[in-house]
Amino acid sequence: MAHHEVLIIGGGSAGLTVGAMLRNKPNPPGVTIVDPSEKHYYQPIWTLVGAGVFPKEVSERSEAEYIPPGAEWIKAAVAGFDPDKNSVTLSDGSTHTYDVLVVAAGIQIDWGKIPGLVESLGKPGTGVCSNYSYDTVESTFENIKNLKKGTAIFTEPTTPIKCGGAPIKIAFLASDYWRRHGVGNQVTKKFIKGGGGIFAVPKYAASLTKVADRYNLERTWNTDLTELRPDKKEAVFRNVSTGEEMVEKYDMIHVVPPMSSPDFIKSSPLAAETGWVSVDKYTTQHTKYDNVFSLGDCSNLPTSKTGAAIRKQAPVTTENVMAFLEGRPLTGHYDGYTSCPLVTGYGSLILAEFDYDKQPAESFPFNQAEERYSMYALKAYGLPKMYWHGMLRGREF
């Protein structure tokens, strides 16, 4: 049985950032990161990969490059948690104990919950694509550029998802592509969402509605994809209020699959009733176990599941982990900040930034609800560099 001062579950955005920030401290604690992945992906760029702007390879790096100096890396998955004994069991059967546990295990994509999706996703001729996998993201652009007429559907599930704006961003980019190539009027474009409304923050929702109108993008709310019939190119949807089913024909469908907390969290004492790790929304400390913290997509922090949110959560978690180890009161405070760079077309973007109260928390001295090339350039070229060279290295900005 191995013991660790700080044991971090997950080597994604949240785990690596907290690990690096802890190791950057003047008297750093011992840090161990548990993650089975050999590769690390900058997933926010997948929207632009799916629109043909970049090859998918720009999003991929070796995980080993970003394990913080001085930290230990255990290449294994988690089998279970026993927080009453301060221990974690891994997939190789080993047991590890800790002084502090940081759970940053990300989100689970439940591809199999949509019958007909797995066998048709990314396959030539099916019209079924998704930006939510490295293996299938390039099939999105193949479908966009090959569609000259017909019906294109873009879905969004009722479940929480990573990057809540991503489903409509690809709808806008595809619509812009077809407009630029003279077939915009030959393609019927439909955005069908399990939730209600185009965006949760009224200031940005008003601007996004104008963009959708400009592209003649039809919108249907409170309607969830439940099944694909790829042999007939039919999608089955259910109204979440009435339970009524509807069947839509498609020539192309971009599917955002349902997502949930990882199964090994759902079945553990760390989970809230919703399955996400139960934490205080201001400190990221667990609501029952004082030496457990969680942030990022696997936590039940009531904000969007984005890398931008993690950028503000990580310093709070780091500060509070250090305070706990040193026996001090927890002073780190997270206000729910998140950001969603909403691409509205090739070369245009609305930068939404807001807090727990859905109030804008903008970084720039202009109206960020307006479409701008400068904000598009920030997303396409600036933010990836900030991610690889700043955030994952534990630098605050």
Q: What is the approximate shape?
A: globular
Strand content: 25-35%
The CATH superfamily of the largest domain is identified as FAD/NAD(P)-binding domain
Tell how many strands the DSSP assignment holds. 21
Report the total helices: 8
Overall structural domain count: 2
Helix fraction, binned, reads 10-25%
Q: Give the biggest sheet.
A: 7 strands, mixed
- The low-confidence runs, each spanning 5 or more residues with pLDDT under 50, are none
In CATH, what is the class of the largest domain? Alpha Beta
Can you tell me the CATH architecture of the largest domain?
A: 3-Layer(bba) Sandwich
Q: First CA to last CA: what distance? A: 38 Å
Overall average pLDDT: 98
Structural description of this entry:
The structure is a single chain. The chain has eight helices and 21 strands. With about 400 residues, the chain is α/β, with parallel strands linked by helices. It has two domains: about 180 residues, 3-Layer(bba) Sandwich (FAD/NAD(P)-binding domain); about 150 residues, FAD/NAD(P)-binding domain (3-Layer(bba) Sandwich). Strands 1, 2, 5, 6, 7, 8 and 19 form a seven-stranded mixed β-sheet that branches. Strands 10-17-11-12-13 form a five-stranded parallel β-sheet. Strand 15 and strand 16 form a beta hairpin. About 45% of the residues are buried. The model has no long low-confidence stretch (mean pLDDT about 100).
